[in-house]
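Why do we care about 3D structure at all? Because function follows from shape, and shape follows, mostly, from sequence. That is the central idea of this module. The next example makes it concrete: a single protein chain, its amino acid sequence, and then its structure expressed as tokens.
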Amino acid sequence: MDLQTIALNVIMSLVATAGFSIAFNIPKRHIFFCSLLGVVSWIVYILLRPSVGEVAATFFGTCAIVLMSRILAVVRKCPVAVLLIPGIITLAPGSAIYYTAYYFVTNDTQSAGRYGFLTLKLALAIVLGIIVVTAIPMPHVKKLINRIKAEHNGAGDLR
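And the structure:
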């Protein structure tokens, strides 16, 4: 994947996540961070997909976003879901769902089954990524947050 394609992917994921955040009435002060989370999830996905596959890349992208959402939720004093849901939208298996329905309607049951199974695997990768990172006890996350704050001490407010 060339640099121009990656840049276009980053811009489109930023715009898509911002649009999703606006459509679902995320407070304006969080839209920028939601958009950044969407970009990070997509970057992790597109960088890992060639080497580990689509499902594993989705899992690792989800793990990155959940961890970052938990940290930012504490720093920005908001619920994790406010940051997590828009940030994870770039990993949603929309095209797989579309092709499942398309091949089902056109009576190509073999392709419909293949895409349906892919949709299920991607959805499970997202759920497992959320569960794995959420299972990390909060004191460990708070230590990480304190270390980040100490590194940025005097660099301005992170809000």
